[in-house]
Amino acid sequence: MAARRGKVGDPTTSNALLDAAQELMLADGYAAVTTRRIAAKAGVNSALVFYYFDSLDGLFIALFRRGAERSFERLQQALSSPQPLWGFWDLIHDRSSSAMTMEFIALANHRKPIRAEIAEYSRKFRRAQLETLSTVLEGYGVDPKRWPPSSLIVILSGISRFLLIEEAFDVDIGHAEAEELVEEHIRALEGERGATAAPSRPARPRARSNGGSRRAPATSRAR
Hints:
This protein has helices at residues 11-28, 35-42, 47-53, 56-79, 84-92, 98-108, 112-139, 149-167, 175-190. By secondary structure, the protein is an all-alpha fold.
């Protein structure tokens, strides 16, 4: 069956090309994505890849931006939900998008424009996370000097990303325990995931006793 030319300027065609590229990346990895394979999968003339995106890198950037904007919308919804910590953790720990994330990270190692795009969106995400979660944690009585919100965001994100990377290699030793440790702290602040009743305000961290070690954050004591 001959490929159809597609209607120039039609957003349906550009979306079809992006969808085709995404399917190829998920199935065979970014290295298998070529203009001919994209066009063949979308059922259009391969010249349209260059018409809409100028280059293969341009298509990759457009695909990343589309996914990033969708993720940013989900982030805003999560942070404005009644349980923003649960929402944040569930979002960064979403396995459904981990495969594409891994592909783009691998791609960024070889293409500087992709790396720059990822860095720009990462900063955008981090600023939004910090702005909202700083207020949330303060409202929960977490001492920002002892437990800086920026540090907690990096720790949660780092744990999530490392677990997802290991899972890609079928390594999961200690994962359930690590997830439970994180979720125990979140549960102490916001109650069970999806709970409709507002959790009680946790006690503020107590001062350390002489010679005592640094205590766990409020999340581990609010029971």
